[in-house]
């Protein structure tokens, strides 16, 4: 049975799995682990983004891409991406794995187990998924406070302090190209890409 309170720890050099750890502890310690992100555009090329719920243990009320989470130990990234997209936004559809990206960033925390000035550390290998979605979404209020669709320039107008670090990174690295990436994935002509490593601190 999958344990959704844990994450898979991985070796920073090889990306090989080296163990498991409680999700909160992994973020307290800044240990490198597996993650997923789903990026969605509509037919007009606008990003579907979410404002994280107040009750999230880090980055509450900040704006982020459509969905981001962690595979449980033993769960594949594509299954985790579909599961979390359904759980957070009530969306089901064909996802395309278009690349991988690694980053490290300090993030604000609301956890009772972390002091106010300590924060948490995201240190993740992110499998990136994308899709086109023109339908409605049904956000889970425990996960998502609000959703909206914005073009690239509009998304960049959100003040950086109101965005999660990883969302700002995505906008910089491939946000403008996301509609083309989705179109190429849908057509079967996209080549999986490694977007490299980023230290955001």
UniProtKB/TrEMBL annotation:
The keyword Isomerase applies. Its EC number is 5.3.3.2. Transmembrane segments: none annotated. It comes from the Bacteria. The keyword Transmembrane does not apply. PROSITE patterns: NUDIX (PS51462). The active site is at 68, 124. One of its GO terms (cellular component) is cytoplasm. Residues 31-173 form the Nudix hydrolase domain. One of its GO terms (molecular function) is isopentenyl-diphosphate delta-isomerase activity. Belongs to the IPP isomerase type 1 family. This is isopentenyl-diphosphate Delta-isomerase. The gene is idi.
């Amino acid at each position: 049975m999958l344990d959704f309170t844990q994450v898979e720890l991985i070796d920073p050099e090889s990306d090989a799995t080296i163990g498991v750890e409680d999700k909160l502890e992994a973020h307290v310690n800044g240990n490198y682990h597996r993650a997923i992100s789903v990026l969605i555009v509509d037919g007009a090329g606008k990003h579907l983004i979410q404002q994280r719920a107040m009750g999230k243990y880090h980055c509450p009320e900040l704006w982020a891409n459509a969905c981001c989470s962690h595979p449980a130990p033993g769960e594949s990234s594509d299954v985790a991406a579909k599961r979390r997209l359904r759980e957070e936004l009530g969306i089901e559809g064909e996802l395309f794995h278009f690349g991988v990206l690694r980053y490290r960033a300090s993030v604000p925390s609301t956890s009772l187990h972390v002091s106010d000035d300590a924060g948490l550390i995201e240190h993740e290998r992110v499998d990136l998924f994308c899709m086109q979605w023109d339908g409605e979404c049904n956000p889970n209020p425990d996960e998502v406070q609000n959703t909206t669709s914005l073009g690239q320039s509009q998304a960049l107008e959100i003040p950086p302090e109101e965005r999660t670090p990883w969302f700002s990174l995505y906008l910089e690295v491939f946000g403008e190209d996301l509609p083309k990436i989705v179109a190429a994935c849908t057509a079967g002509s996209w080549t999986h890409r490694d977007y490299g490593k980023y230290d955001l601190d």
